[in-house]
């Protein structure tokens, strides 16, 4: 028992103290509601912050002036701040809020340690603050949903261990022997997120603010999207399914529809989900066998996903009349429906013929936000509306206001998703359109961009509607809290040892439901199989990444330029992966080969083309084109929505890091000679002076030390290690 609870009981009247341990004895204890309240407030705060940033970056894509002319507020730097804020700050705090409330009641005990609860809370908030500071500064790994640098990765690991310690400690001293289905999902979430984070965060530090991935190229891409897809699976999905299994029956006052379906749902979901990551890399340089595995298991994933949706919706049988009146149930119904829609669309998008059109387009953005805004957002709102009156022992201030929030949020989702689907279809079709003569109909990539700018404005309006509903909720929850008082330590009484009340106590699965250790072991086995089957061949069998003799490591200047490319977040809008489609080889050049990326720590294939692919951009334009394009994109591409980067012309390359970077990369297997490393900055300046001299011939004066020179060197290197086809302008 934690110190705080012990003190409460020490000072309690005799009638509140634990009774004897005889048969049928009961004891009084106190649930910790304060930690739930704290995570609830953090959920709301970071939700507003993350969504506000989302609205800003939505309008940045429509109007580059919204980038505000500073290096700290450009789309490339702020976009990962938005994703981290809504995923790990908003949704993360919501997970802790729901788990800390439900776990105590399902186990009929207070959380194992008040101290661990507080460390979990404040540690998580500090991690979020560190992301708010570092990402706008350009301190990033560039790996999607894993952009935070290595010191923060270590902090995340430590706080996640604290959360697990608190959770398993609570399970160890539970009074309810049977573990309800929600707890299964909590256990799987903790274990899988730990595995994902540790494996994907294998990196070699250069200094406090810079590291390189321990994997390169194709292997880095496989690990990253094994992580990226399953971060969605085990951070945005499984914990929320656990919360659905707890809060939906509570709100509807109905039992879960099917106990047996929940068993099938749980085990099949966690086993199948882990295999599906490669469907993010279809038609790339990833080996075909890995792509095929991703497709097969993605299609299979439809069954358990819809099993969960059906179990949720049918829990409302006999209670649909309440949906008309109760805003909480409205939010839950739409949340579960959005989950069903997103988990139907995901397997469909993994089919190669669909993926060929949809990938790299705004279709994927729409798909992601149906899940994020509908499933995660609406279920979080429902939990908040359900929890606050109970934490403060009062009634919800205004159901009408909650209903207004529901409709604003629903309209916001529609105004967001429909334009993005339209934009995605437009992009996918225009990129592939040929004339009767066999030439690209829209050879200039910018023609596609200009067509979808109105859709970006509509998306921004959808974001404003959705955020407006959140502001209504904040006022409603504030007034609710003001009308009551927080019950920080909620008194309850339960038998000393509670036998399972489940009607399925004799079911074959009940054995594991009473044993958290065995549940954790088998869940770990289930999620490890898929990853091992994909990773072992990819890393051990060398033919998966054929060697190309002409591929050489980056020069010291090119490496510094590549790190600037990462710092500015260019990978958020540009891919470096030409797929083997005629439409792409005609537009960009020879398709990308696995062996070209063997020295890329981290890989930069990208997942979205707001701008054209850059893998074959090297040598396509003179140095002066890149110079002017970075100073004023519209001077080279009239109508461009890309922001300008004037600071690159003023800031100097940080040469103090050059040798350290090369040494770390050598440790990771990049064949840099010690002699070259010792003269790295001399080599850097020699190449930089050459670029500066070439620019001077065209009347452009720029000092060799300027960051723009390094970036030009990197861009001119891209795709030049192998012979490329002539590209059409």
What does this structure look like?
InterPro entries: Cyt_c-like_dom, Cyt_c-like_dom_sf, Cyt_c_oxase-like_su1_dom, Cyt_c_oxase-like_su1_sf, Cyt_C_Oxase_1, Cyt_c_Oxase_su1_BS, Cyt_c_oxidase_cbb3_su1, Cyt_c_oxidase_monohaem-su/FixO. Belongs to the heme-copper respiratory oxidase family. It is found in: Cell membrane. Its EC number is 7.1.1.9. The chain is mainly alpha-helical and 729 residues long. 62% of the residues lie in helices and 3% in strands. It has 27 helices and four strands. The chain has helices at 3-10, 34-62, 75-107, 114-134, 150-172, 181-200, 217-235, 238-252, 259-273, 288-300, 302-314, 320-323, 327-349, 352-358, 362-391, 399-432, 445-482, 510-513, 516-540, 556-567, 582-587, 623-631, 633-636, 658-667, 674-678, 680-697, 707-717; strands at residues 26-32, 203-207, 210-213, 489-495. A two-stranded antiparallel ribbon has the order 1-4. Mean pLDDT is 93; it is low at 1-21 and 725-729.
Short note summarizing the structure:
The protein is mainly alpha-helical and 729 residues long. It has 27 helices and 4 strands. Helix content is 62%, strand content 3%.
């Amino acid at each position: 028992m934690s110190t705080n609870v012990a003190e409460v009981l020490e000072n309690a009247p005799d009638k509140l103290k634990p009774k004897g341990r005889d048969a049928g004895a009961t004891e009084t204890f106190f649930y910790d509601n304060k930690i739930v309240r704290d995570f609830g407030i953090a959920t709301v705060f970071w939700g507003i912050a993350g969504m506000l940033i989302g609205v800003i970056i939505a309008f940045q894509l429509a109007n580059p002036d919204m980038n505000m002319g500073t290096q700290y507020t450009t789309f490339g730097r702020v976009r990962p701040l938005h994703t981290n804020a809504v995923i790990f700050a908003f949704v993360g705090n919501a997970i802790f809020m729901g788990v800390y409330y439900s776990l105590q009641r399902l186990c009929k005990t207070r959380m194992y340690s008040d101290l661990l609860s507080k460390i979990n809370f404040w540690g998580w908030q500090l991690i979020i603050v560190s992301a708010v500071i570092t990402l706008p500064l350009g301190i990033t790994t560039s790996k999607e949903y894993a952009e935070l640098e290595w010191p923060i990765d270590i902090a995340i690991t430590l706080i996640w261990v604290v959360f697990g310690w608190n959770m398993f400690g609570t399970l160890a001293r539970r009074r309810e022997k049977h573990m309800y289905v929600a707890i299964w999902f909590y256990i799987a979430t903790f274990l899988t997120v730990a595995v994902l984070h540790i494996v994907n965060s294998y990196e070699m530090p250069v200094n406090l603010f810079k590291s390189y991935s321990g994997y390169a190229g194709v292997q880095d891409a496989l690990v990253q999207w094994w992580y990226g897809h399953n971060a969605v699976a085990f951070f945005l999905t499984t914990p929320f399914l656990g919360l659905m299994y707890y809060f939906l029956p509570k709100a509807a006052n109905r039992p879960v529809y099917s106990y047996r379906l929940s068993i099938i749902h749980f085990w099949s979901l966690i086993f199948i989900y882990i295999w599906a990551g490669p469907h993010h890399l279809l038609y790339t340089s990833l080996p075909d066998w890995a792509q095929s595995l991703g497709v097969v298991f993605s299609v299979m994933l439809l069954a358990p996903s819809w099993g969960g949706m059906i179990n949720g919706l049918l829990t409302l049988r006999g209670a649909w009349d309440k949906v008309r009146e109760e805003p909480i149930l409205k939010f839950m119904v739409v949340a579960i429906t959005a989950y069903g829609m997103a988990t139907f669309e995901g397997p469909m998008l993994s089919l190669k013929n669909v993926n060929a059109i949809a990938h790299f387009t705004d279709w994927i953005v729409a798909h992601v936000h149906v899940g994020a805004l509908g499933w995660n957002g609406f279920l979080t709102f429902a939990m908040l509306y359900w929890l606050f009156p109970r934490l403060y022992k009062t009634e919800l201030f205004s159901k009408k206001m909650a209903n207004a929030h529901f409709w604003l949020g629903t309209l916001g989702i529609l105004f967001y998703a429909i334009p993005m689907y339209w934009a995605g279809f437009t992009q996918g079709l225009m990129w592939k359109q040929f004339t009767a003569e066999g030439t690209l109909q829209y050879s200039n990539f910018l023609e596609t961009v200009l067509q979808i700018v109105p859709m970006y404005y509509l998306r921004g309006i959808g974001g404003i509607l959705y955020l407006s509903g959140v502001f209504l909720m904040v006022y409603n929850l504030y007034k609710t809290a003001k009308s009551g008082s927080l019950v920080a330590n909620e008194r309850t009484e339960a038998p000393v040892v509670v036998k399972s009340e489940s009607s399925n106590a004799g079911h074959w699965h009940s054995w594991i439901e009473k044993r958290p250790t065995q549940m954790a072991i088998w869940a770990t086995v289930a999620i490890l199989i898929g990853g091992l089957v994909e990773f072992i061949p990819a890393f051990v069998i060398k033919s998966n990444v054929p060697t190309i003799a002409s591929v050489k490591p980056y020069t010291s200047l090119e490496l510094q330029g590549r790190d600037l490319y990462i710092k500015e977040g260019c990978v958020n809008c540009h891919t470096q992966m030409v797929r083997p489609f005629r439409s792409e080889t005609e537009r960009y050049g020879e398709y990308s080969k696995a062996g070209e990326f063997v020295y890329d720590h981290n890989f930069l294939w990208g997942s979205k083309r707001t701008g054209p692919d850059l893998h074959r951009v090297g040598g396509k334009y003179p140095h002066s084109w890149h110079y002017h394009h970075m100073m004023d994109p519209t001077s080279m591409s009239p109508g461009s929505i890309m922001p300008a980067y004037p600071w690159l012309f003023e800031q100097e390359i940080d040469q103090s890091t050059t040798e350290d970077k090369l040494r770390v990369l050598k440790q990771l297997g990049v064949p840099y000679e010690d002699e070259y490393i010792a003269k790295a900055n001399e080599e850097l300046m020699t190449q930089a002076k050459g670029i500066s001299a070439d620019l001077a011939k065209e009347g452009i004066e720029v000092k060799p030390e300027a960051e723009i020179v390094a970036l030009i060197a990197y861009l001119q290197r891209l795709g030049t290690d192998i012979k490329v086809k002539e590209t059409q302008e």
